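> call design_seq(struct)
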């Protein structure tokens, strides 16, 4: 059992971990990749950094600093979080438990470019299986994606819907999976319908009738994880107060996923604020 699990190993997540560890709290950082910062060729406007340094180099320096404090860091993909009084964070191979959560996975700046996605959002296109599965009881649905996150969404839907088809949009479905699903690997041309989505059209001009589509490409984004916990979001951003608290007790967010200026100093500040907020709340609450 951890005092806090931090999802994301960028500046916000690592800073939160450093403050927690220095205050003698037991924390775990889970991160699958280094995010958008890793693609920065040169960092020249960050305090104290005067030499040319890439985004990836800066990230690695932060991770090294955390490891020197014995912060536990694991390179895994979080596919779901459950709140049963204790938070259960699930990866493909492990389940971790924690008293608090910090979401610091940045923001997904790229949506699938398929005709019809924007038009049918909320009208047959959804981004959260656990949130919207009820509306598709005994209906035929599809999931757009090809990774572990998509398959986990399929597991959420299986007991409720009539059928599930995974649409990989030309990609290969992840191997070594523990679930059997129908899959269509053809590239998608468009999502069509009148008032609500009615079918998927492929580039070969064939169509498949469907009652709903769940978007689950790549890995779970910050808002994907937040919505599963009942956290209030605004489009692709998580809403927090000045202490980085969400509307759900013991769930915090920091960094790009909270919106506003997408810069390293802001991420570091919010990571610090989240860490200090957890420390204060646990000490005052005697947890």
């Amino acid at each position: 059992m951890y005092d806090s699990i931090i999802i994301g190993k960028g500046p916000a997540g690592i800073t939160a971990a450093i403050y927690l560890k220095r205050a003698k709290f037991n924390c775990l950082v889970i991160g699958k990749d280094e995010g958008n910062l890793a693609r920065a060729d040169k960092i020249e406007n960050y305090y104290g950094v005067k030499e040319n340094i890439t985004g990836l180099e800066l990230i690695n320096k932060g991770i090294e600093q955390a490891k020197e404090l014995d912060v536990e860091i694991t390179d895994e993909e979080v596919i779901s979080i459950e709140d049963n009084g204790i938070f259960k964070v699930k990866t493909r191979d492990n389940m971790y438990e924690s008293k608090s959560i910090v979401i610091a996975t940045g923001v997904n700046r790229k949506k699938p470019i398929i005709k019809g996605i924007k038009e049918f959002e909320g009208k047959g296109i959804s981004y959260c299986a656990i949130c919207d599965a009820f509306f598709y009881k005994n209906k035929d649905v599809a999931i757009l994606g090809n990774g572990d996150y998509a398959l986990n969404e399929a597991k959420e839907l299986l007991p409720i819907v009539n059928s599930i088809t995974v649409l990989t949009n030309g990609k290969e479905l992840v191997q070594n999976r523990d679930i059997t699903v129908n899959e269509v690997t053809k590239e998608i041309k468009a999502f069509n319908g009148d008032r609500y989505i009615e079918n998927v059209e492929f580039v070969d001009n064939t169509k498949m009738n469907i009652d709903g589509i769940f978007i689950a490409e790549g890995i779970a984004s910050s808002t994907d994880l937040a919505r599963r916990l009942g956290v209030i979001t605004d489009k692709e951003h998580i809403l927090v107060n000045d202490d980085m608290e969400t509307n759900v007790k013991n769930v915090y967010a920091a960094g790009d996923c909270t919106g506003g200026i997408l810069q390293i100093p802001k991420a570091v500040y919010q990571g610090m604020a989240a860490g200090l907020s957890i420390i204060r709340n646990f000490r005052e609450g005697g947890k």
